[in-house]
């Protein structure tokens, strides 16, 4: 019986903070300079601990079997972590200075960009062996696999290209010219559009996945902020495909975008250098890591307003919600 008041208190706090039902789960944040993940309780939004990892952890992703995979640039590996125990299960070699990656839909292959080698590398998860290496433009970063696993999209920051690669053959089948310094990507819920954030163009390039033609460009504007300081990087789409959430980097805001109208509906002020974003399961809260203020902003999505700032580690980079 003593647990009942605690549960009521937990739900009341969560309702007050986010207007949602009592949530159970953890928000994980990678911190480049702390070699650790910060864990945040989803219900109370309080820090619940840290997990030591390899050096300079950056891109963080949930695998199909619900493990955490973290790319560590200075260690050259992916750290595979069991969120149930916080233990590292094993470390998979990724090559020099890995930053971004994606997994095949079956979770058996890692596709990781190799910036120094101007290549994307295919790695077998089970054995850690390199399967293929595909040359692309200089300074590749963002990596995104199509929902059916047949195509791989890779951004080249220097060439301002998105390379389309056939995963079966490892051949580049198309090079798409996009905005300056393309970084990250999201695929619409219907699979028909690829949205590419372009850091030095203050915008997003929208590409058809049918013929890989550029459909439109969406430019961001923030009152009182110079265009060169609007540097979009992280992006996530809602499950229904109606909205996109874009972190605007040095502009210290997140843009809420109506996908069909290709129009910004809200701008939400967050911390310094909004870098990557993640939604909770109910899509009531958006979590934003701020790389220069060493914190995470929690946004109430229905109200389009920040509700809490949580200090995390030094230079937070990636964020994943596990429920």
What does this structure look like?
Helix content is 5%, strand content 51%. It has one helix spanning 3-18; strands at 26-31, 36-41, 47-52, 57-62, 68-72, 77-82, 87-93, 101-103, 109-114, 119-124, 130-135, 140-145, 151-156, 161-166, 171-177, 182-187, 193-198, 203-208, 214-219, 235-237, 243-247, 253-258, 263-269, 274-279, 285-290, 295-300, 305-311, 316-322. A hairpin with a 4-residue loop joins strand 1 (26-31) and strand 2. It is globular.
In short:
This protein is mostly beta strands. The protein has one helix at residues 3-18, and strands at 26-31, 36-41, 47-52, 57-62, 68-72, 77-82, 87-93, 101-103, 109-114, 119-124, 130-135, 140-145, 151-156, 161-166, 171-177, 182-187, 193-198, 203-208, 214-219, 235-237, 243-247, 253-258, 263-269, 274-279, 285-290, 295-300, 305-311, 316-322.
> Would you tell me the overall average pLDDT?
93
Shape: globular
Describe the strand arrangement of the main beta sheet, using strand numbers: 3-2-1-28
Which radius of gyration do the C-alpha atoms yield?
19 Å
Helix content: under 10%
Order of helices and strands: HEEEEEEEEEEEEEEEEEEEEEEEEEEEE
